[in-house]
Specification:
Structural class: mainly alpha
Order of helices and strands: HHHHHHHHHHHHHHHH
Number of strands: 0
Low-confidence stretches: 1-39, 47-72, 79-106, 115-120
Strand content: under 5%
Distance between the termini: 120 Å
Number of helices: 16
Radius of gyration: 50 Å
Length: 397
């Protein structure tokens, strides 16, 4: 600039107004040269200020949100199933060990014995059991309690007299049952209503009580104090009407324990019996050599010669066969109570239930028995087919 003015001053004399125009033109030229640079810098500055203001606005906005909204979210991973593989013929074939225990239990609902404790339980004496039976009968109202101020001798006399009255009422009940059985038979003979299952079992119980009547009367007349011992050691000698509630429960429990012992001790025998008869599906009665084990599994006496044991087993299974027909007519025991279902299962050798089984589960086990015995192979009868089913029950672990 100084050089420019110096040159101008040397060449000519310039007026003040001319000098101003020269200088303003030079400034204008310099401004035109620097305008693009200033514009780019201005754009950068304005963009930076805009971004700063935006970030400030965002930070001021997000600071007012709750912490959960500000926290960064994780990317959602979508799990998509892979392509299904077509099973090969070898993998699709079922394997023997692939059957679950639950399926096996559903196939054999009745053959799951509850675990038996290996530790022997303390057995009370016969006198203690007799006292407990009398106390239970007194608590249930079967026997009248002794006076509170009674001494030992008076209490003993009172209990003996109450027992004598109880047995006398039991003998009178047998006579009452005789009249009721006669009325049922008269009704059927005259073309009345058909015999029901409850009436059939009532008649059978009366027959058993009538056979026990004479020896029981002799024991009551001679020495009635022996009756608690008879109930403990020879329970089948007592009529059903002369058994105390505690004695009845103990008789049922002991019979069930004996059945379970027979099942546990003769598994190989039952398994062999089942394998030998799998081809035919039935077991002839005359071919049974170990009839005592089969009697034990259904809870009937196994003493005596082989012919007597076979006859006893055959008669029991014939009664069970007629009972199965009545149960089938009554919708597989739909109206049976829990004690009646347990009794029916024990008569068929299926005593592996426990206290937790419901009535529906026991009824399903009873239905399994009826369905199995209803299948009649060629040459089989009601007794031989049920012998085969007993072999299945005894051979199942």
């Amino acid at each position: 600039m100084h050089r420019f003015t110096k040159n101008v001053a040397v060449n000519s004399v310039i007026q003040p107004r001319q000098l101003y125009l020269v200088l303003s033109g030079q400034r204008l030229a310099v401004g035109r040269l620097q305008l693009p640079h200033y514009a780019s810098v201005r754009r950068k500055v304005s963009a930076r200020s805009a971004s700063t203001s935006t970030s400030n606005d965002k930070s001021s906005h997000t600071s007012n949100l709750p912490p959960s909204a500000v926290s960064p979210r994780k990317h959602r991973v979508e799990l998509k199933p892979g392509p299904l593989k077509t099973p090969s013929p070898l993998s699709a074939a079922p394997r023997p060990h692939s059957v679950s225990p639950k399926q096996e239990q559903l196939s054999f609902p009745a053959f799951r014995p509850s675990p038996v404790s290996s530790t022997p339980e303390s057995v009370p004496s016969a006198i203690e059991l007799a006292k407990q039976d009398i106390a239970d009968a007194t608590a249930q109202g079967v026997l009248r309690p002794a006076p509170h101020d009674a001494g030992a001798i008076r209490r003993f006399t009172h209990q003996a007299f109450e027992l004598l009255k109880f047995y006398f009422r039991g003998l009178k009940a047998i006579n009452t049952h005789r009249k009721q059985v006669a009325a049922i038979r008269s009704r059927i003979a005259t073309g009345g209503a058909a015999l029901s299952r409850a009436e059939s079992r009532f008649i059978r119980t009366f027959k058993q009580d009538a056979l026990k009547l004479i020896p029981f009367v002799i024991v009551v007349v001679v020495m009635e104090e022996l009756i608690p011992f008879i109930a403990l050691y020879v329970p089948r000698m007592l009529p059903s009407t002369c058994v105390l509630p505690g004695q009845r429960d103990r008789i049922i429990a002991k019979a069930r324990d004996n059945q379970r012992l027979v099942l546990a001790g003769n598994w190989q025998l039952f398994d062999l019996l089942r394998k030998e008869s799998e081809g035919t599906g039935f077991i002839p009665t005359l071919s049974v050599e170990n009839a005592g084990a089969l009697c034990g599994i259904v809870g009937i006496p196994a003493w005596g010669p082989l012919q007597l044991v076979r006859w006893r087993l055959q008669r029991h299974l014939q009664n069970v066969a007629s009972d199965d027909e009545m149960l089938k007519q009554e919708v597989y025991g739909r109206d049976l109570t829990l004690p009646e279902l347990k009794e029916a299962l024990q008569e068929r050798g299926m005593s592996m239930f426990n206290k937790t089984n419901s009535a529906d589960e026991l009824r399903a086990q009873l239905k399994w028995w009826i369905d199995m015995t209803e299948i009649m192979p060629e040459g089989a009868d009601a007794v031989s087919r049920r012998l085969f089913v007993l072999g299945i029950i005894g051979s199942h672990k």
